[in-house]
Each structure stands twice: as C-alpha cells, then as structure tokens.
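Problem: given the chain below (175 residues), write out its structure.
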Amino acid sequence: MSALRQRAARLALQFRTVRPGTARNTRSYASDHGHHEAPHAVEESLGPAFYITLATFTGSIFVYSISRPGENGESTIHRWLRKISDYGTEWETRNHLMTAALEQAAHDKHLLYGAERSRHYELTYPEVFTHGSPFNVPAGHYANIDKVVAHYKKQYHEDEARKAKKLAAASETSQ
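Solution.
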C-alpha cells in the first residue's frame, strides 16, 4: 500500500503546482535560457561618395561666385590678389609715417629742452610764498613779505584803472 500512497502524493503535488488554464512548456532547449538579446544596431556612414559629391557641389558654387565680375568689372580673385600685392606697400607707408612722426617728436623735444626759460613767475596772491612746508625756518619766524604784497596791490590797481579807462573809451564811442 505504500507504493500506492507514494504515487497519490506525487500526483497531488503535481496538480498543486500546475494551475489550471496555463499551458505547460514541455520542450527545453539547451541554448535558450529565457532571455533574448536585441540584434546589434549597425551604424552605417554615408560613405566617401556622398562627401565628395557635397564638396564638389559646394566648391563649384564658391569658384563660380568669386570668378564673376563685381560692380566695377573686377572679379573677387583679382581684388584679393591686388590686396595681397598692396599689403607690403601699405605697411611700408605706415612705417614711413611712424618714423617721420617719431623724428619730429624727437626734434621738438630737443628744441623745448634746449630753449632758454623765463625766470619770471607771475604770482597772483601773496600766500603763494608761504605755501608748503617751511624747511630751515624755525617756528614763529616767517619772512616779511609786506613789500611783495604792496608791489602786487599797486600792479592790481594799475590794471583795474587801465581796464576802467578802456571801458569808458569804448562806451563813449558807441554813443
């Protein structure tokens, strides 16, 4: 009876694992492990013929456009060649002008440094004598500049009298 019992247990176990309504896959392949890989994507370039054709087409349009005459009847190629040939003379002209300017500046510098300078300075206010730090003057001992102040006051009054006389003459002639 034990053989019968074993057989019944095995059948019960088998029915319990298989659900009704699902098909059982009975075939098994050794190379199939249950997952599938997508096929490799192949990146194909356009090839050299495409790029050669594109370059030829673009190059021919460029050569045609630069070979056509412009507004003054001169082609772009001739204009470029003229600019290249004039490039050296343009720099030569610039260098010549720069050299002439530097020579003139050096001449003016020597002229100004060699010229005799005036030793007379016009002082407009008396405080100009006492501006700044009093080197070699002890505290409380300043130079007496009363004569200088009197000289410039006299000069100022003479200037004002001359201006007033000139204005009076101008007002008499205008009437």
